[in-house]
Amino acid sequence: MYWKSAGVIHTEKTVELALRKAEEYGIKSIVVASNSGKTAELFAGKVENVVCVTHANGFKEPGVHELAPEQRELLTGKNVRILTTTHVLSGAERGISRKFGGIYPVEIIANTLKIFGQGVKVTVEIAVMALDAGLIPFGEDIIAIGGTGKGADTAVVIRPAHAANILDTYIAEIICKP
């Protein structure tokens, strides 16, 4: 499914398509980018393993986390695992490029993935982050959900590799994207 536009207006249908594909393929893990926790909440209880990947602490403002404590509590109460860590496709490397200028290899990977859309870049990034954190099994296809700004507009079937081998990541299918 290719959306004519990007954004939150596609969240409900993206969730529906991802859940249908998970059932069709027997996929047990869904990793979803969700800073407010609202998109992750839509997957709670629908598959065996739901991982919510948030922005890192300090992403928008030093020392501040975007996921409200009450939403974190609600998600964990619904067995949604939450991952808050440095983003694998930016992190320290972005700090170096901001300080000294230029672009470095990890940022080249990120910008290359953005050719397919912001959401595709996000899905690869969060899948690798979840694998590195041990929240999804190695060597299995999962579904990763990302977006452009708020909500979700992109879903992929992906078999992530650890960050140390990120170029071995395999996108099996793009379920939907702008």
Could you characterize what this model shows?
- Residues 12-157 form the Pyruvate kinase C-terminal domain.
- With 178 residues, the protein is α/β, with parallel strands linked by helices.
- The protein has one domain (8-57, 66-176): 3-Layer(aba) Sandwich (Pyruvate Kinase, Chain: A, domain 1).
- The protein is 35% helix and 19% strand.
- It has helices spanning 11-25, 38-41, 69-77, 91-100, 105-113, 118-132; strands at 29-33, 49-54, 80-84, 142-146, 154-159, 170-176.
- It has a 6-stranded mixed beta sheet, sandwiched between helices.
- β4 (142-146) and β5 form a beta hairpin.
- α5 crosses α6 (118-132).
- The termini are close together.
- The model has no long low-confidence stretch (mean pLDDT 95).
Topology:
Layout: H1 11-25, E1 29-33, H2 38-41, E2 49-54, H3 69-77, E3 80-84, H4 91-100, H5 105-113, H6 118-132, E4 142-146, E5 154-159, E6 170-176
Parallel strand pairs: 1-2, 1-4, 2-3
Antiparallel strand pairs: 4-5, 5-6
The SS-based structural class is: alpha/beta
Task: Give the helix level as a range of percent.
Answer: 25-40%
* Approximate strand percentage: 15-25%
Mean pLDDT across every amino acid position:
95
Q: What is the CATH class?
A: Alpha Beta
The CATH homologous superfamily? Pyruvate kinase, C-terminal domain
Q: How many strand units?
A: 6
End-to-end separation in angstroms reads 8 Å
Could you tell me the CATH topology label: Pyruvate Kinase, Chain: A, domain 1
Pfam family, one: PK_C
Organism: Methylomusa anaerophila
Keywords: Kinase, Pyruvate, Transferase
Protein name: Pyruvate kinase, alpha/beta domain
